[in-house]
Give the backbone structure.
Amino acid sequence: MNANTLPKALAARLAKLGVHARFDLVLHLPLRYEDETRLTPVNAAPAGTPVLVEVRIERAEAVYRPRRQLVVHTQGDAGPLALRFFNFYPSQLKQFQHAREQDLVVRAYGEVRSGWAGAEMAHPRYRVVHAGDPLPQSLTPVYPTTAGLAQATLRKLILNALEELPLDDTLPQALRERYALEPFDAAVRALHLPPPGAGIAALAARTHPAWRRVKFDELLAQQLSMRLEHRTRRERRA
């Protein structure tokens, strides 16, 4: 990836994140993860924890009291749920109305809270899908980003880089075995595409073996840089 292969605006936004080449995308690691690999019944959603629910649309409407908002009234297997959007476009209202006409379902990710009219989600991330569509097979990474650069765009760029770039290991096998380090390829793939059983707590705390490998590489690079700078200063004095 270089400035000539991407739109200038996109390249400029990536540059703000320190991403100037395609391999930089491989090393642009997630801040946290969201679990969209399983569905949770509305009445079983734990307080304060985002979950993924699947619901059918009963009606969608724009209301203006107490403030302008889009309210989507839905029904899940375990009860009703209202989806509320305080900042929305007219096209979203049409999208939900069209989905109801086509008998599609909504998969919404967010916190289920108790509202004045029952269970609700405020500003969930959502997708309109066919009932029975497969769920993601890995946790959803959330990356550091900047204004104007959507998570979906960043994820697509990173996945393309993972698929197309050679991820050769920079450490000999003997050294990896000595310090019980994962191969570089396996480590970065585990961080960008962790399976459901990878341990979201260990990933979030950065204690997962994949993080251990990345930390080792970062520390090694720092030490090599310091050694190179020290050697350069000695040669100047000589």
Observations:
- Residues 209-237 form the longest helix (29 residues).
- Residues 85 and 181 are 45 Å apart (CA to CA).
- The chain is about 40% helix and 20% strand.
